[in-house]
Write a structure and sequence with these properties.
6-stranded mixed sheet; Cytochrome Bc1 Complex, Chain A, domain 1; globular; 18% strand; 437 residues; 16 helices
């Protein structure tokens, strides 16, 4: 299995829908994914969550089958239907036995092409979302993640939680979901991915049978590809949570789009900085040496437009300022002093070694194809992935670190008790209080 690189087939169906297929003969299973290439970044102002809600609503019945009928028919085949809105894309997936491929394709086409948007279900969806949100907001980690997103991006397209917040929950109506669907679900800006024990000729013929008449909506929203004109100014921000004994800390700045040529060297740099578990610089300093946290990681969120680079951790409130200082110090050291050949080799070994795990199942392969197509990575991406990682030199990695780690541009958000951490934070520089979850 370690050497398995799937052959990827492609064609364009009548109407403009692109089909990508992989013949996977290891298990009698098939995974089908429909991708509309717009997501939460197109949510209307003040209505964050529309894309994700609309995806959820697609599973609640079609013009032919009620929600109950649809669920029973899918369950009877041992299949599973799922839908979600992401950044840059909305996905609807159905997987099941390969012998049921025509029926599965028919069902997915029905869900995508003829959703019912049952009005009676909307209040139930809203109530369920309200309960889920209330549960999430009980978690300080989730509060910190959501508040950092809003603080950093503001009113820009990436500036809200994908699933929405308390304000947007009250503002969204059924028409918003229908409008998103009618606008963004269009063949010319969508792709169908099929991976499973089905010959590609049959994939193509079956897809054409059930999708050739679909005209869809549109025109889709213009793709969001540019960095926002305005972002939050670098500095220290505190959301006072007197009920907490620990502080949640988020430190970050604007990152890169997925299309950037430094993606691979930066992937390795970030592993060394904070993605590599106990071997990472941040974990070694802040957990192992200082004992200030149980866990810390850094992440570049690569999207169609530049996403955020974020360091996430938590610590006893009295140690908040120390941890913030040390995060910046570690990033400065890596940027200015570089990385070692051993660190680079370990990062390369990790990603090269774990690459086959992403090709173990039809679902895994389908997810890879979705990302490849969404970000125009080319059909040879999987074949070249490991080699491109191996070719990264120490100088290329250090150059990426110098160019794309910007400690002077960092926005720092602390969610914690002001009575225990504000004084020390103020000694580091101006501290601005923020409100809300």
């Amino acid at each position: 299995m370690a050497g398995y690189i799937p052959e990827i087939h492609q064609t364009v169906l009548p109407g403009g829908l692109r089909l990508l297929g992989v013949e996977y003969d290891r298990v009698p299973w098939v995974s089908i994914i429909f991708m509309a290439k717009r997501g939460g970044e197109t949510d209307p102002p003040g209505k964050g969550g529309v894309a994700d809600w609309a995806a959820d609503f697609l599973t609640l019945g079609t013009q032919k089958r009620s929600q109950l009928q649809l669920a029973e028919d899918i369950e009877a085949r041992g299949a599973s239907l799922n839908a979600r809105g992401g950044w840059d894309a909305t996905l609807v997936g159905l997987e099941g036995l390969a012998e049921d491929f025509p029926e599965l394709m028919n069902t997915l086409a029905e869900v995508v092409q003829t959703p019912a948007f049952p009005e009676a279900e909307f209040p139930l969806l809203k109530e369920r979302r309200r309960a889920e949100l209330a549960h999430l907001l009980d978690d300080p980690r989730e509060v910190a993640n959501r508040r950092f997103t809003r603080l950093f991006f503001g009113d820009a397209p990436y500036g809200h939680p994908l699933s929405g917040d308390l304000q947007s929950l009250e503002a969204i109506n059924l028409t918003d979901l229908q409008n998103f669907y009618r606008r963004e679900f269009t063949p010319g800006d969508s792709t169908l991915v099929v991976v499973g024990m089905v010959p590609f000729a049959r994939m193509a013929a079956t897809a054409e049978e059930f999708w050739r008449g679909w005209q869809g909506g549109g025109p889709a929203s213009p793709p969001f590809i540019q960095a926002p004109a305005r972002l939050r100014s670098p500095g220290l921000y505190l959301l006072d949570r007197p009920d907490l004994t620990q502080s949640e800390i988020r430190v970050g700045h604007l990152g890169l789009p997925r299309s950037h040529p430094d993606y691979f060297p930066l992937l390795l740099v970030n592993y060394i900085l904070g993605e590599g578990g106990f071997s990472s610089r941040l974990m070694s300093r802040i957990r192992s040496e200082l004992g200030c946290t149980y866990g810390i990681r850094s992440s570049f969120h690569f999207r169609r437009a530049p996403g955020p680079f974020v360091v996430s951790t938590f610590t006893p409130a009295a140690q908040t300022a120390l941890v913030v200082k040390e995060i910046k110090a570690v990033i400065m050291e890596l940027r200015e002093s570089g990385i070692t050949a051993q660190e680079l080799a370990e990062a390369q070994s990790y990603y090269v070694g774990h690459f086959p795990l992403g090709l173990e199942t039809p679902r895994h392969i389908g997810s890879r194809l979705v990302s490849m197509d969404l970000y125009d990575l080319g059909l040879d991406y999987l074949q070249n992935y490991q080699q491109r990682l191996r070719e990264i030199t120490l100088e290329a990695a250090m150059q990426a670190a110098r160019e794309h780690l910007r400690p002077e541009s960092m926005v720092t958000l602390v969610v914690g008790p002001a009575s225990l951490c504000a004084k020390d934070l103020e000694e580091m520089g101006p501290l601005e209080m923020v409100r809300g979850n």
